[in-house]
Amino acid sequence: MTDRRAVGVLDSGVGGLSVLREIHALMPEESLYYVADSGFVPYGERSAAAIRERLDALTGFLLDLDVKAVVVACNTATAAAVPWLRERHSLPIIGMEPAVKPAARVSRNRTVGVLATQGTLASGRFAALLQRYAGGMRILTQPCPGLVAAVERGEVDSPATERLLQSYLDPLLAQGVDTIILGCTHYPFLRPLLERMLGSGIRIIDTGAAVARQLQRRLAAEGLQASPGSVGKVRYWTTGDDAALRDFIGNRLPMALRAPVSRVSPCRDGAMAGPQLPHT
Ligand code: DGL
Asked: Is the CB of residue 42 below 6 angstroms from any atom belonging to ligand 1?
């Protein structure tokens, strides 16, 4: 059985594009509809209730486009809203969380740093994750205010971003971490800068590829995969500045992922509103 409908992918902004590119690399046959809630970024400083409200609107928008699954390509939104969303919708909803388990496998000195938003680090879901997988490890957490905004502006290697990042890395390096988890989907866009700053002795782990594999398993289990060999369509919507999203995609994603971008007005009576492109 195959299913040509698109997979919906959402995030507070451009961060989830780091997951979208992994999904496309693994399953180029899948059509992908991406919604960036850049009108409401950053989620990391919002309450769980406010994030749930946004996720409700974004998911409703994607369901109107008849998606077959939703990937919440955002650690903060997963922590705040994924169990709640799953209670409301029966389609597969894939969330993500900082890669504590893989980090526990690779760290040699058992000392791991987690860069993430305040919202993710303060969540009960993150506490539960540590309880499950961090036994015998020193896990040092570091919230990174301002970093998501820098990535949203496309400033992934400016001197100001480097200084900000250095201020978040210093406390972790002082404690001897040998592994750093990127616990926010915006941060993989900083990876080249991070690699330059950290040198080769420190491992950097992010979850995009693992989320893509999880999506693949789930689609297969439910008979929802697109037919192999077909070419998926990609479309983007944003509640923020569509020209900025277009630029970001043009500068940071491979050719095959360049596709139409539309602006949607963020909310109308609690629902997303805007020009709905025909989903042929
Ligand atoms: N990209 C998001 C994450 O993975 C959240 C960034 C934000 O809006 O604060 O946590």
From this structure: yes
